[in-house]
Specification:
12 strands; alpha/beta; about 25% strand; Rossmann fold; 11 helices; about 30% helix
Amino acid sequence: MLDVEAIKVWFPIRRGIFNTVAGYVRAVDGVSLSIKEGETVGLVGESGCGKTTLGRAILGLEKISSGTVRFQNQDLRALRGKQLRTLRRNLQMIFQDPFASLNPRLTVMDLITEGLAEHGLLGQESRKEAAARLMLEVGLEPEGMCRFPHEFSGGQRQRISIARALSLQPKFIVCDEPVSALDVSVQAQVINLLLDLRSRHNLSYLFISHDLSVVRLIAQRIAVMYLGKLVECGSCEQIMTDPQHPYTRTLLSAILLPGVKRSRTQPLQGDLTAAPAPETGCAFRNRCPLALPVCAKVTPPLRTIQGRTVACHALAPSNQEVAE
């Protein structure tokens, strides 16, 4: 369904009266990821690690510095005009804050049918009929279609956002922390709705979150991101029960799961947002309890270890491989 190959999103740092480029913020630095049809991949990591930027770059909302994004074997960066417009209908996004992402001056009917009208997909169906159909699909009463976003609760606003993303019948949706701003009970309702929609419409999700306890409910595979790079990728069962990378272990030790004994892993020192990604070596080395001298010199590649891919020199099968 989707193939992301070595994608980079670098933001220039400009200084001085001549506004010269003094460096770059490597928000996404060489990430490769694939998502199958009907599959959900969870993308996890601390706030500021580049998760949202990656999701926005896949959809073309952020400019890509290098790399390719292929959707159904079509290079999105090579498409222009009508071709891109037609393909983009299959790629939608659910934003983190439903209050900020919904236009407060538009009614619900206008919000969730705007895409249909723009792409000429209403057909014989009126906007009112289309809005009623979409609201029922996400568990809302059609009687509220003439109301404005501020008249709904947080969970209801997120359902409106889901209905808007669903209106063009997409095949792939980026879910950017869609439940992080909701109460726990409402989170479960929204997760169940996303699971139901995935089964009903055979949707593929990139589910972005910092909460592994939420991701384990919806994702088949999990990718762990740190400072713009993927450090571990594997099935949900592998990541949740037998994490290999020290960063993944620390993330798991910070959450409470029913029936799972909490690890005694020491908390990380330092702040992610205060530590810019180094140009060479492992980005995690300054906070890693397993750091080796080679970690400061060579960027660890993703290696297959115990059925999943891990980027860590300390877990390399042999010293020879580390040297190479």
